[in-house]
Amino acid sequence: MNISLPALLSQLLLGLVNGSFYAILSLGLAVIFGLLNVINFAHGALFMLGAVLTWMAMNYLGVNYWVMLIAAPIVIGVFGILIERLLLRWIYKLDHLYGLLLTLGLTLLIEGVFRSVYGVSGLAYDTPDALTGATDLGFMMLPNYRAWVVVASLIVCFATWYVIEKTPLGALLRAGTENPRLVEAFGINVPLMITLTYGFGVALAAFAGVLAAPVYQVSPLMGQNLIIVVFAVVVIGGMGSIMGSILTGLGLGVIEGLTKVFYPEASSTVVFVIMVIVLLIRPAGLFGKEK
């Protein structure tokens, strides 16, 4: 098989872009599961909400992309806080299955509402003017927007990892999930901390949705297929592992891109094949802690 260098590099870039979305979405799932112990199946629908809200703001209100990059995560984060306060807080002490079923029901509800309004066809969202075009690297043309997606995702992912793993706030969050009574004894409002954590995890999904709006077709169903892959990423990286989600998401995106070059028929299943192999060898995931 003769493959030109530009073609190979373009597929690697495409894989890295997809891996960036996998990383930031799986990061949100890992934060929510690691700190709240909830399997948030609604993550894909909230990712979609970030993209659709961005499209609506542009078309109905004339709000530009850069404003929505900040506004959409805040709005969807507040929506997530309402979900946590009104619904999820009642099931924390129950089996994981209850959280999974509840968030699955929310997914069907949210997608159904937007599907009834906009249908299932894609909604056009143009690339911001400042990021149109491509940069000539000599050996390939690098689309500016895709480069921006990778850079923005990496900054957000590693900033989140640093806050949770290396700061006093992150230590409080981890302690609050492991021994909430002890943390409350120091005057910390643990329920509020948990609520804000869920809102932040949801905001990450919305941020990914805004980034994805010019790349994918904005559709009420855009989160469906993506979230299945993202759950596989979280399982491979290790449930609740922050760094595991980031590195695994990026790595699997690149592997998926290379598979499209050398064996396209397997590109849609390679992630799940890797998941099966990892679970057989290391059930806790590559970066998970063995119990």
Automatic annotation (TrEMBL):
Belongs to the binding-protein-dependent transport system permease family. LivHM subfamily. One of its GO terms (cellular component) is plasma membrane. InterPro entries: ABC_transp_permease, BCAA_transport_permease. Keywords: Amino-acid transport, Cell membrane, Membrane, Transmembrane, Transmembrane helix, Transport. It is a multi-pass membrane protein. One of its GO terms (molecular function) is transmembrane transporter activity. Pfam families: BPD_transp_2. The chain crosses the membrane at residues 29-53, 65-84, 96-114, 145-164, 190-214, 226-255, 261-281. The keyword Protease does not apply. This is Branched-chain amino acid ABC transporter permease. GO terms for biological process: amino acid transport. It comes from the Bacteria. It is found in: Cell membrane.
